[in-house]
Amino acid sequence: MFKKRFFIFVVFILIIFALLTYQGTRGDLGTSVFAFLNYPVKVLERGTSLAVKSLKNFARDYIPIFGRGDENRRIVGQENGQCLEAKYENERLRSLLGLKSQRTDYITTAEVFARDPTNWFQILWINKGRDDGISKDMIAVTSLGVVGRIHRVFSDMANIVLITDVNSSVAVRLQSSRIDGILEGRGDNRCYLKYVPQEVDVMIGDGVITSGLDSIYPEGFQIGYVVDVDKRIGDFFQVIEVVPAQELYAVEEVALLKR
C-alpha cells in the first residue's frame, strides 16, 4: 500500500516536471495546463494577500484612533474643564460687578495674581495699582465678605493685607447682640474677636459685621461667623474665635472700595 502511494506521488511529480518543461519550450498548452494546476495556489495566495491588505487598512484606519483614545479623552476633559472654569469666573465677576450698582464707593475689580510665600504675613497681590486709581487703605471685598485692605501700592499692582494677618484689626459688631469689638488676625485662617464682655451672650454661628467705627472699613459688611467662645474665669472679656465669611485662600478676584 505504501509503495503504491509512493509510486503515484512520483508519477505526479514527473507529470508536473514535464508540464513545466513543455511550458518553457512551447508556451500555450503548457501555460494553460500549468495555470489550471496552479489555480488553487493562486487562489490561496490571492486570499492571503487580500487578508493582509485588509488587516493593514484596518490598522491604518482604526488603530490610530484607538491609540489616540486617551489623548482624545484628555482634550475633551480639558475643554470641559475650561468651560466650567469660565462659568465659575463669570459667576464670580457678576457678583462683584453687582456691588458696582449697589455702592457709591466702588472703584474697580482686580484679579489676584500672587500670594505671599511665607507664613508670617497674610498678603495677596492684585493686578491693579496707582494707574487704576488704587490707593492705600482701600478695602478689598467679595460678594461673600471682607478680604482685607490695600497696604502697598505700585503703578500697576498692589498688595492686600488680609483680615487674618496678625497686623490686621477691624472694628466689628456682633449681629445678634449689636455689641462692638475689635477683630484681630490670628496669623492663620481665623481671627479673634476681642473686648466683648463676659456677660454678653455670644452663640456659635453668630454673624460678625463691620461697624465702621475705625473709619477704614465701611459699616455693614459681613466679615465672619463665631466658631468658638471661651469664657475664662477671672477674665473681663471673652475669647471669641471667628472664621472669615469669605474663604481667603480661595480668593481670585476682589472689588475695591474707597475709604
Notes on the protein architecture:
The protein is α+β, with helices and mostly antiparallel strands. Helices cover 37% and strands 27% of the residues. It folds into two domains: 2-64, no CATH class; 109-259, Rod shape-determining protein MreC, domain 1 (Thrombin, subunit H), CATH 2.40.10. It has a six-stranded antiparallel barrel with strand order 1-2-5-4-3-12. A six-stranded antiparallel barrel has the order 6-7-8-11-10-9.
Keywords:
single chain, 259 residues, alpha+beta, 6-stranded antiparallel barrel, 6-stranded antiparallel β-barrel, 4 helices, 12 strands
Short overview:
With 259 residues, this protein is an alpha+beta fold. The protein has helices spanning 2-25, 28-61, 63-67, 69-102, and strands at 106-115, 123-126, 139-141, 146-153, 158-162, 169-174, 180-185, 191-194, 207-210, 222-230, 239-244, 253-257. The longest helix is centred in the N-terminal third of the chain and has 34 residues, at 28-61.
